[in-house]
Description:
By secondary structure, the chain is of the alpha/beta class. 33% of the residues lie in helices and 20% in strands. The protein has helices at 11-22, 40-49, 69-79, 98-105, 121-128, 155-158, 177-182, 196-206, 233-246, and strands at 2-7, 30-35, 57-61, 84-89, 92-94, 110-113, 117-119, 141-142, 159-162, 172-176, 210-214, 220-222. The strands form two sheets. Strands 3-2-1-4-10-6-11-9 form an eight-stranded mixed β-sheet, with helices on both faces. A four-stranded mixed β-sheet has the order 5-12-7-8. Strand 2, helix 2 (40-49) and strand 3 form a beta-alpha-beta unit.
Amino acid sequence: MFLIVTTYNWPEALRKVLDSIALQTVPPFEVIIADDGSSASTKQLLEAYQSKLKCPLIHCWQEDRGFRVARNRNHGIVTSKGDYIVFIDGDMILAPKFIEDHIAVAEPGYFVQGRRAYLNEQVSSMLLTTEKMPHIFMKGVKHREQAMRLAFLPKSITESKRSSLARAMTANCAFWRDDVYRVNGFNNDFEGWGPEDIEFFQRLFNTGLKCKKLNFKSNCYHIYHPSSSTASLAHNHKLLDDTIKQQLVECENGLRQL
Length: 258
């Protein structure tokens, strides 16, 4: 199980993410920080955490040329060595059994979509300036039910199997490496916010894969931040529409074009 964390110029949040990785009941084999062009402060943070994790911590960096998260994720995939990859964003604080749960649900023929609870601005600010970690009973947690771990429930509840999804969230998801390479990874033509994740998931569905949508396991908490610019949405939605209409499997500008 290899963990890829995307980040950009927010070392305060990344520090909290790394602290939560250090607290995992089962550590990942490797953590790759896929960096979309952060300044030296992120590199300095990662150097300080090299000895704090129970696994290798690798920093892969690309030049800052705007919001290029699709290419950034591909960079992380190419850098990783694992057969099975979990993705999170650099603003996700993981519950202690996050990795353990992802390992347990991995199954050929499926990729995995997890969920997340949301921290409001006040509690996020507090957590970023203290050593405290979020928990389900903390004030300021939205969608609190998504922070509940009830792994003893039947799999029909905790692992609902889908042939489509209304929305995608690469802040908590997992894929087999071979499946990712079959579709040539994320589409590098997506620049600016959204919906590169939905388009990627759609191409996976077009190969015949199904999705396990998790409930009450692999929990995590989203740190509050202002919304990203939607200036690129029209261009990006056209890329998604083309994938849906043409039932595309591979993108032309993906992993193999790095």
